[in-house]
Amino acid sequence: MFSKRQVVELAEKENIRNGCYFNIMGNEMKLLKIDGISIVYQPQRNAANDIIKEFTQDPSVLMVMALGKTQSGKTGVMYACIQQYTSPEVEGNVPVMNIYVITGLSSNEWKTQTTERLPQILKNNIFHRNQLKEFMESIKGKKNILVLMDEVQIACGKSQTIAKQFSECGLLNEQFLMENDIKLVEFSATPNGTFKDSELWGKHSKLVKVMPGRNYTSATDLKKAGRVFQCKNLCNGPYALDNINEIKKQIEKRYKTPKYHFIRTNVGLDQEKTLSLFKEVFGDDMEYILHDSKNIECLDEYLGNDSIEGIEPEKHTFILLKEMARCAKTFKKNRIGVWYERCVNDFNDDIVVQGLLGRATGYDDNGDSIVFTNIASIERYNELWDSDFSDNVPWNSNSTNFSEKKKKTISKKTFNSKISGISDEENDELYDVQTTTNKMIDGETLQEFWERCKPKGARKQFEDSNTQDGFYMASITNKKKAYLHSEIVDITSTWSGSSGFSIKDKDIDQLEVGGAIQSRAYVCYDDFSEESKGSPIIFVRKLIKK
Prior knowledge:
21 strands, 6-stranded parallel β-sheet, Rossmann fold, single chain
């Protein structure tokens, strides 16, 4: 039994090799700085230094949670951690090729952006969620590893992919982490349940707040400046046209030159309906761009990025977003006017903060953009930040619930709760939740695929009348539509298997059928590209009695 991380010295040959890698990385970092792609500022260096100190001063520390506001420079902190922790001058320094950057996002966009900002020597050590098996293979047999995990709140449920992969490779086993000197740093602006569950790690977990530097514009700053408004329905209901007219008045009042305006829409036919209403209000004298996973690169072409200048709009241009541009994306803001978040009945505070509101924050505020979002979420986030993420602050997310009875925010259980030696809630001792993801076999028809993968008694899913833009629909929480796999996993992460009742409210034996207390299956997709129409996924979730 180990009580602290076991330091292992490199062999002479490996030490020389690592010195070469360190020099290569140093030169690549210089080039990134010269090109203006990755510049690390003092607040980021300070945060990185605080993170490294937690590990070097206390070898019992296994995980540090680094919390920073949206676009306050968390990537720069990662960069500084890599730069400082690989230095031979740091006690217990990490070999260059033992640095890994991962995320729970299933996003090629995130990987491309992250790879561009980090030294190329690390390009094969950067993995998103769908590549975690490759990550597991890469770390196998290694000691003295640093894992930097971006956007830790994504797909963080205790039954989701990250929890399974981490458990399999030992990253949730206290003794394995100690024995192999593995250090985890989890980054987020909205850690949700992962933060609450990090407390279960006891002395093995620490918190570092990444403080923003000078000239940072926060969501609260935008609100104080009178540049934040409550978002409203732009598609359905009797006031949709009035709500779009409100946007028109703001544009006419504020912008003498054309701008790009982001409007997040519902998926499927509702996007076309929203577009039709905008044309009714603004006419055909505006430009309209429909942006989704099929034209993911077009935004940088218009707005510009570190490599290209972008295009000055000749007329006001509305970019209608369909489930894109969330927490991973950084935009060049100088030509942006309106950011409009989609209005929903029940807002998740973290999605609001990390959405278009979060994209509008940062160090490059253009001074005149405005944001339509959920104002109450800004107020809750400000209170959450000031209280060091106290559970006394009500916070709505996929991995937290606010208990009115206890008057505190409670985790729904994330992968951080699965650290070895920690017991789950009492009812979790009675059942296991199992999930499987099934894909089509070449030559298989959709109907054959469904019959092979669905649980017994599941409803038919593959009928031509049950499609949305050619994608088959599923019904979850009374909402029928075409779902992304990443979306469906998050929505079903808290399902207890008892048709609208918590498992605590039912007698388990009464529900048990053939070993599985209950099971459900849903059809979904990796993305909504044309190629994906013939490649659906069947996601099956089962509640199994222990």
